Amino acid sequence: MEDILTRWLGQTAVIRTDLLAVFGVLISLGVSLHILMRKRVVGSAIGWTGLVWLSPVFGTALYLTFGLNRVERRARKLKRRPSVQYDETPQAPAAVPEAYAPLDRAVRAITGLPTVAGTGITMFRNGDEAYPAMLEAIHGARRSVALSSYIFLDDDIGKTFIAALKAAKDRGCEVRVILDGIGSGYFYPAAWRRLRNLGVPAGLFMHSVLPWRMPFLNLRTHKKLLILDGRVAFTGGVNISDGNRVATKPEFPIRDTHFRIEGPVVEQLAQAFIVDWAFVSGEDLEGEAWMPRLSPAGDLTARVVTSGPDADIEKIATVVLQAIACARSSIRLTTPYFLPNDLIVSALCLAATRGIEVDVVIPRKSDHPIVDWATRAHIEPLLESGVRIWLDEPPFDHSKALSIDREWCFVGSANWDSRSFRLNFELNVEVYDAALARRLDAFISEKCETRLTQADLDARPHLVRLRDAAVRLLLPYL
């Protein structure tokens, strides 16, 4: 009897093992087919395929957790809703300098938007200059106020903005406010609660505590937009917090650059806000209060470029690549975080090797040390190719600006890292204007204080170099 039971148990174990083996093969085969169809990067496809065959259960679990591009899939499901329709006259493309006609054609193909003439732009430094102008514009609004901010804190300046928004609503303006669901506070931001309590319509962008919606990492709206009556707009890098008022000597001062924009291109900025508000609230904003007919307000030519992990994926990064390729004499950029992908690194290296002056300004010390560590491990190819990298001394500067040949410039919310280029919803403005481009070029050049060399990198202790190299592996998520 014991022998029969033993044989039966043995046969059962063999059958169970065979079934598990078949199950493992089927899982590995199914996941491999998905990898082959979805993964465009060959190295990534080979790595994931090898892992799911070596360890079907563990490898599949890792692939389902980290390998699927839920960012793109979820964003397309949520953002691609019927767009608001308007009875406006299509904007006629503006003329650009002949040397930049190829860049203009490329960016038009990327964005689907024309360049727009008649733009007026005013540049502000820090919240000290930007906030008074923004608040004055809110006080002067008569029909509508649209505000979107990644960070909107319930501190002194935040309360001042909230009071101005409430006053605008009380005098009959339509007011809408978007706060990022993470940047302004992880769960229920205080500024959002105060706005809601005051009856000001405010929405949280991608706010959820459900881990599979990845609220703490991805799908953030990093845009900074303020639009008054559909006619005047502010955009750039300035968030709403006391730290941006450098003159008040906050504990951690944040320098930054912001822009006031007028003219027909404001329509493109308003459209970007309207799409985001429809996504956040389900409400379609229509009518003259939000989309009035606009007259020229200056002599600049501009265009808005939006980017995000949906149908707009990597549009800002692609525009950057096109601009680098079109550069003839100089490329100067400043960014608080510098971890571009290999394509952009290669483009900058090629530009430097063909004799173009390439200057990159990064903070000596940003507000995210882990990014600084990864940057030191990421820039060797640039230094080897002759790209000059400069360390901007404190206080921390959050500005993002690119100047090409002192004739074309690109400003807005996007940092030079994978998070901004691929994961966040961002907004930049390209401007064809020599005066503004030269001003930004001079602004960037003034920040070229201390050059970072290969010798500096080699002088790092071995353990520090190892730490930096390890952190660089997180590049897609930093």
Please count the helical segments. Answer: 17
Estimated helix fraction: 40-55%
How does the helix and strand content classify structurally? alpha/beta
How many independent structural domains?
3
What is the molecular shape? globular
Contiguous low-pLDDT stretches (5 residues minimum) are 80-90
How much of the polypeptide forms β-strand, as a percent range? Answer: 15-25%
CATH superfamily of the largest domain: Endonuclease Chain A
According to DSSP, the number of beta strands is: 17
CATH architecture classification of the largest domain: 2-Layer Sandwich
Instruction: Identify the strand order in the major beta sheet.
Output: 4-3-2-5-6-7-1-8-16-14-13-9-11-12-17
Report the C-alpha radius of gyration, rounded: 25 Å
Overall pLDDT metric: 88
The major sheet is characterized as: 15 strands, mixed
Termini distance? Answer: 64 Å
Level-1 CATH class name of the largest domain: Alpha Beta
Determine the CATH topology of the largest domain. Endonuclease, Chain A
GO biological process, one term: cardiolipin biosynthetic process
GO molecular function: cardiolipin synthase activity
Domain PLD phosphodiesterase: 217-244, 393-420
Transmembrane segments: 20-38, 50-71
Describe the structure.
With 478 residues, the chain is of the alpha/beta class. The chain folds into three domains: 67 residues, no CATH class; 205 residues, Endonuclease, Chain A (2-Layer Sandwich), CATH 3.30.870; 163 residues, Endonuclease, Chain A. Helix content is 44%, strand content 19%. It has 17 helices and 17 strands. The chain has a 15-stranded mixed β-sheet with strand order 4-3-2-5-6-7-1-8-16-14-13-9-11-12-17, sandwiched between helices. It has a two-stranded parallel ribbon with strand order 10-15. Helix 7 links the parallel strand 2 and strand 3. Helix 5 runs antiparallel to helix 10. The longest helix is centred in the N-terminal third of the chain and has 37 residues. It is globular and about 95 Å long. It comes from Methylorubrum salsuginis. It is an enzyme of class 2 (transferase). Could be a virulence factor.
